Amino acid sequence: MNFHIVTGGCGFVGRNMVKRLFKTTEDVIIFVDDLSVGWDPEKWLDESLQRSEGEVSFYGVDSRLVFIQDDIRNVLRASIEKPVEYFSHLTGQELQKLDKFFHFAAIVGGRAMIDGDPIKVALDLAIDSEFFYWISRNKPENVLYPSSSAAYPIDLQTDTDAIALSETDINFSKMGQPDMTYGWTKLTGEFLAKIIAEHYGVKIVCIRPFSGYGEDQDLSYPVPAIAARAAKKEDPFEVWGSGKQGRDFVHIEDVLDCTLLAMEKITDGSAINIGQGRLTSFLEIIDLFTEFAGYKPTIKPLLDKPVGVHSRYCNMDYVKERLGWEPKISIREGMRRVYDAAVEKYVNKD
Fold first, then answer.
1. Are strands 211-213 and 249-251 parallel, antiparallel or unpaired?
2. Which residues of the chain are under the pLDDT cut of 50?
3. Which of 162, 172, 281, 304 has a C-alpha 20 to 30 A away from that of 137?
4. CATH number of 2-213+250-274, picked from 3.40.50.1970, 3.90.1150.10, 3.40.50.720, 1.10.1270.20
């Protein structure tokens, strides 16, 4: 039986990918997370727990979902010599081939973390270097390295010079400055991905998701936090900065769709954007959520809060041309889903 590995498998993107793979394949899904940020599987997995053996838990009637609670670096070190044998022994199943490796493990925490503790974020360099070393030795069938829109030069994202960012706006022979240590770590990861493809013959693709969001995202991120406050009819309504700063919001289901398609069609370590190709301000998001809630609050800017770059959105022409892909979920539909989930979580339960 083939198997897939998802690091950071209990984080926002990771847990959604785990659920997608479980529904769309018959393979074993091994997901690793130390739960420093990610959610315990008991909170989000629909499948029942079958048994636990130390730090390893098995979910689903066929035990195809295998959760390892550990720092991914420990797992990589333990399995580097003979990964198929290692994971076969760990799962108690006769595994044959590591098909896809999704590397979502990272230090995360939104803008407050990026600006507030940049050296902690730089630990991503340690996580990624061990990941790439493991990949160079074991060469899975397909590998995903999630980069970030934060890798783009910040001088292209100001209030006066904002452009729709294209893949070619990152050029390793003529570098611009990315967004804080988070941007630098992701840019380094992209560089290593190209080396992995060119020097080791590994099929790998990088993605640059813009502002991904979804119904089960935690409140450290702006979209679910704004939705929750709108559901509670906050007034005055607080917004970090002026609220005029904008992002390219893309629903998690579209992120997963584009990611899996990219893994089929791109293998040379190159990077693609994933977004709507549309700039939406935080004030517009507040207007949308408060419209759903049926009220019009006074806006209260919090000018002492970190806001990041002024305008970050992407050009999706390359993805449309190379993959034939476009997002399916509109901003209004996606935000409606998030708002309805917020009402269930924070209003109806009371």
1. parallel
2. none
3. 172
4. 3.40.50.720
Amino acid of residue 261? L
What's residue 18's pLDDT?
A: 98
- DSSP E strand stretches across 177-222: 204-209, 211-213
- The tokens for 137 are 């030795």
Which residues on neighbouring strands pair with residue 250, listed in sequence order?
Answer: 212
pLDDT of residue 350: 56
Nearest to 338 by CA among 211, 222, 224: 224
pTM of the model: 0.92
Q: Which two tokens stand for residue 57?
A: 């838990």
**Contact status, residue 229 vs residue 190, Cβ threshold 8 Å:** no
What gap in Å lies between CA 202 and CA 232, rounded to an integer? Answer: 49
* pLDDT for position 181: 84
Give the CATH number of domain 222-247+278-315+329-348: 3.90.25.10
For tokens 């959604």, name the residue: 16
| Number of C-beta neighbours around residue 139 at 10 A | 16
